[in-house]
Amino acid sequence: MAGLGFNIAGAVWDSRNVIGSIYPLPSIATITLYGSGGPTPVLGSTPSVINTPIINANSFIGNSMGGGYDTGVSDSVTKTLMLLCKPSTAGTGKSKGIGTYTGSGSPIGDTLIFDSTTNRISSIAGASSGFVQDLVNAEIYDGKFYVVFADFALYKTQIFACKEGGLIAGPGVGLTTRAVPDKTIRIARTYESADTSGNADIEIAASGIWSGALLTSEQKLQMRNALVSRLGGIIAIG
Q1: Whose CA is closest to 84, among 11, 12, 5, 187?
Q2: Beta pairing partners, 74
Q3: d(CA 229, CA 147)
Q4: What is the DSSP string of 44-74?
Q5: What is the DSSP letter of 106?
Q6: pLDDT in tens, 77-128
Q7: Residue 10: CA atoms inside 13 Å, Cβ hemisphere, count?
Q8: How far apart are CA 141 and CA 209, in angstroms?
Q9: Are 180 and 100 in contact (CB under 8 A)?
Q10: What is the pLDDT of residues 29-85, one digit of tens each?
Q11: DSSP for residue 127
């Protein structure tokens, strides 16, 4: 049977319609799901593979010196980054999650760091010289997946974790002479030539980038709810 459609004069497609409506700021978002079918873009373009990440049914495992993905999204001073991830278990070390971290030089690049030896997560924001780091004790190293965000702005960075429907936030740390490298944002794999601060594995089910804007607390919880609705029956989300 032929389908019936309507052509309305002057109408245009808006990414907030249908699938975009459940995700915050869809017109600027790059949201990707990972798994055995390869990286699946929900909004934005498809990431390219780096080296050989370990592919699971609904996630992949990578690390800072091994496998991961390149989103193709150019880094920007202002942005919110997100991961739905399962960090390495308690006591096994540090993992880098998402960003443009180079490990040395200036600017050093922005990234999320998971440290299972201290139960902390952190956001590192680069400047034209040096960097600052926002930290929070999140207690997310229990074998579940968690939604984690980092805000990066001209004068501040702040780390967040969604846990049991609530939002845990770091205090936020200010900085001056903010700068980012001329690189594209990567998932799991960093730009380091040699890891000097830990390259424990991290398992990632989804990533998100909002370039040029910061998600509000309500929008962060909206994003978490959308991921729970889509994946909560498949993976354990804390």
Answers
A1: 187
A2: 184
A3: 13
A4: SPPPEEES-PEE-SS-EEE-TTS-EEEEEEE
A5: S
A6: 999 999 999 988 766 788 999 999 998 889 999 999 999 889 999 999 999 9
A7: 0
A8: 23
A9: yes
A10: 999 999 999 999 999 999 999 999 999 999 999 999 999 999 999 999 999 999 999
A11: B
Q: Which residues of 20-50 are buried (b: 16+ CB within 10 A; e: fewer)?
A: bebbbbbebbbbbbbbeeebeebbbeebebb
Asked whether residue 10 carries a pLDDT value surpassing 80, the answer given is no
Q: What is the DSSP letter of 158?
A: E
Closest CA to 82 of 110, 53, 112: 112
> Domains of the chain, with CATH numbers?
26-231 (2.60.120.200)
> What CA dihedral angle connects 141, 49, 58 and 238, to 10 degrees?
30
Position 236 pLDDT exceeds 60: yes
- Render the burial of 216-236: b for 16+ CB within 10 Å, e for the rest: eeebbbbbbebbbeebeeebe
Q: How far apart are CA 93 and CA 76, in angstroms?
A: 28
pLDDT higher than threshold 80 for residue 17: no
Arithmetic mean of pLDDT over the chain: 90
Q: What is the DSSP letter of 220?
A: H
